[in-house]
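Sample pair:
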Amino acid sequence: MREVAFIKQNKEKWLAVEEVLNKKQKISPDQMADLYIHLLGDLSFSQTYYPKSNTTIYLNFLVSQIYQKIYKTKRVDKNRFIFFFKEEAPRLVYKHRKIIYFSFILFFFFVFLGVISARYDDEFVRVVLGDYYVNMTLDNIEKGDPMAVYKSGSTWGSSIGITINNIKVAFWAFLCGVTAGVLTFYIAFSNAVMLGAFQYFFWEKGVFVESLRAIWLHGAMEIFSIVIATAAGFVLTKAILFPKTYSRILSFKIGFKEGLKILLATVPFFVIAGIIEGYVTRLSATMPLWLNLAIIFGTLSIITYYFLFYPLKFAKK
C-alpha cells in the first residue's frame, strides 16, 4: 500500500485519537484501550513499510501519548511513593538493563585501570587523591589508625554532608548525559580510577583489610548507586543520539523522564550510605568482624537485588 493511501484510510481514526488526547472528546477506558491497540497495529505497519517517514514519527508520538494517558488514569490503590519504588522504577530499570550492565562493566574496568596505574606509577596516587590526603593517610597509618579520616567531624554533620555531596555527584552524572555522554563517561572514569588507586594504596601499605572493613561499610551502597546514576546519564545520552522513530526532541523528553526516575530510585540508598558512613564507619576497627561483614554483604545484597534481580522478576509478571 502506498503511504498516501495508508494515511487516507486511517486519517479519521488518528484525528479521533488527537481529539481524545486534547480532551475534546471523552471515551471510556475500554475504548481508549482499543484505540491504543489499533494504533500499535498502524505503527507496526508504518515502521515496516515507511520506517523513515514522518507518518511513523507521528504515529509513534500518538502511541506514546495515549499510553501515558492510559497509564496516568489507571487507578493506583497503593501509596504513590510505594508504587514508584515497587513498580515504576523497576520497570524502567528493566527497560534499560543493558545500559546498566554496560555501566558496571565500564566502571570496574576503570577501577582496574586505577589499580594498574597505581601499581606502576608511584606518583599516580598523589595525582589522583592529592598530596594533602595522601600525607594525612600516611600519618594515620603510622599512628596505627589508617581509617582515622572517617572519625573526624560530628556523626550527624558527616552524614548530612556526605549524603548531599553524593546526591549532587549523582545528579551531575545524570545531567551530563546531554553532553553526548562525554562528561558522564568522565565522571565514571574519575570516580572508578580514584577507587582503584585508593584501594591499591592501602594494599601497598599493608592495611588493605582495614580499608575494606571501613570503606565498604558505606561503599557497597554508595558506589553501586554512583554506577546506577551514570547509567541514568547514559539513558539520556542514548535518547539524544539514537531517537529511532521519535523526533529528537520527543526522544529527549522521554529519555530525560526515564533517566531521572532511575536516578531518583538511588536516593534512599545514598541516604542509607551517608548514615552508615557518618555513624557506623568510624566504628569499623572496633566492631566484631561478623557484624562488619553482615553490614557490608547485607547492604550489597539489598541494592543488588533491587537493581539487578527484582526488575527481572517484576518483568516476568
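DSSP finds 13 helices and no strands in the chain.
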